[in-house]
Amino acid sequence: MYRGIYGASSAMLVQEKTIDVVSNNLANVDTVGFRRRISVEKTFPEVLIQRRESLAPFEGASYQPIGLSGLNVVLSQTAMDTSEGAIEVTGNPLDVAISGDGFFVVGDRAGNVFYTRAGNFALDSRGNLVTQEGLNVLGRNGAPISVANVSFVEIDEGGSVIADGNVVGRVGVVTFQNPTYLRNVGKSLLQASAESGGAQPVGAARLVPRALERSNVNVIYEMVRLIEGQRAYEAAARSLSIQDEQTGSLITTFGRS
Q: What is the DSSP string of 77-135?
């Protein structure tokens, strides 16, 4: 009987986490370069169920195999949907979108490196090319791109940063063997993991200047997943309540004998 309680509670936890993932996707539908996350579930390994039968006194017991049964389901991890979002032309000379595979390389002052599809760059007060979060955009040489004391800056289709007609750097673009396993550390910031592999430079990235990649979240699909998750959670909660009532009845009926 307790097995049913554990199974129902496990299902509730899985659906709760799934709803959280879907809700986060919907919250970032307008976030530039955001890639939706997918919840990945797994079951514990199957176990052999056996029936215990008592033998004659002092002869122990025998066990008869009944069959295999999978144990509870858990949320294993979340994976990134690598499908490309729609590209929107903005006309901003510092906006740039990646067409196809690849990620921009950005970093903070502590030396931490992140990756993003959000190309809505800007210039800070010191003339450095930065993201909307203030992180430095790193060039192909791994160094921040500085364009101080210029009047006009733009990024072309090859990733070259052109200041007053002169190329002052090239935006770094990298790819991964398994990008779906990149970890989210912000709305559109990612970090490499053991499963994703290390960053590999892209020699000839396909960039779209004066444009941005929108989120790849499909609102209708996510709303359907949200409703499915809520109904599955409610069904598991009802099952848990039934199992609890039956357990209480058994205890009341046989607990005094």
A: EEEE--PPPPEEE---TTBEEE-SS-EEEEE-TTS-EEEES--B-EE-TTSBEE-TTSP
* Phi–psi pair at 225, nearest 5 degrees: -65, -35
From 172, 131, 169, select the one nearest 147 (Cα to Cα).
169
Question: Is residue 37 within 8 Å of 80, Cβ to Cβ?
Answer: yes
Domain boundaries, the chain: 2-80+218-254, 87-213
Q: What is the pLDDT of residues 117-165, one digit of tens each?
A: 999 999 999 999 999 999 999 999 999 999 988 899 999 999 999 999 9
> What gap in Å lies between CA 247 and CA 49, rounded to an integer?
21
Q: Alpha-carbon torsion 238, 239, 242, 247, what sign?
A: negative
**pTM for the whole thing?**
0.80
CA-to-CA distance for 41 and 14, rounded, in angstroms?
8
